[in-house]
């Protein structure tokens, strides 16, 4: 795959916004006893949002056109700039350097574990939201990305082919 400059521009714009949001929050929220809890919060929220975003986009159709641009702008750009595992590593190293190995370990492990759980929860929330929104049996309208307004109650794409077993139809 070769570099597409307009995609790089989308990521740069998103990354600038995400980085600015992170910097603003880190300036407003003080550290607690030398631990940057705001970075923990940023990474956890970012992990949740990234899980939800990617699940939503993947359920909407193939990664092309508008969905690809949204993934690059919001996922790679904004959320990539917003979250920061390099600052997590630096904060952990500073805690170790300052003779606080327990705090360093808890900070690093909590960020990674809670971040993984947050990603999973983001995926689950987005999947459930999609299911409720597009399930024909739920009484809501049935529409998806490129098939907007299509009646999915007759959609046979995910059903087995039984034409040979129904009396030779």
Relative helix content = 55-70%
Q: Largest sheet, if any?
A: none
Q: Could you give the order of the helices and strands?
A: HHHHH
Summed up, the helix count is 5
Gap between N and C termini: 46 Å
What best-fitting shape do the alpha-carbon axes yield?
globular
Query: What are the low-pLDDT stretches, counting only 5+ consecutive residues below 50?
Result: 141-169
What's the gyration radius in Å? 22 Å
Total E-strand runs: 0
| Domains, number | 1
Entry keywords:
disordered C terminus; globular; mainly alpha; single chain; 169 residues; 5 helices
Describe this structure in words.
This protein has 169 residues and is mostly helical. It has one domain. Helix content is 67%, strand content 0%. It has helices spanning 5-28, 37-60, 65-82, 85-97, 101-134.
Could you write a compact summary of the structure shown?
The chain has 169 residues and is mostly helical. Helices cover 67% and strands 0% of the residues.
What is this structure's SSE topology?
Elements lengths: L4 H24 L8 H24 L4 H18 L2 H13 L3 H34 L35
Helix pairs in contact: 1-3, 2-3, 2-5, 4-5
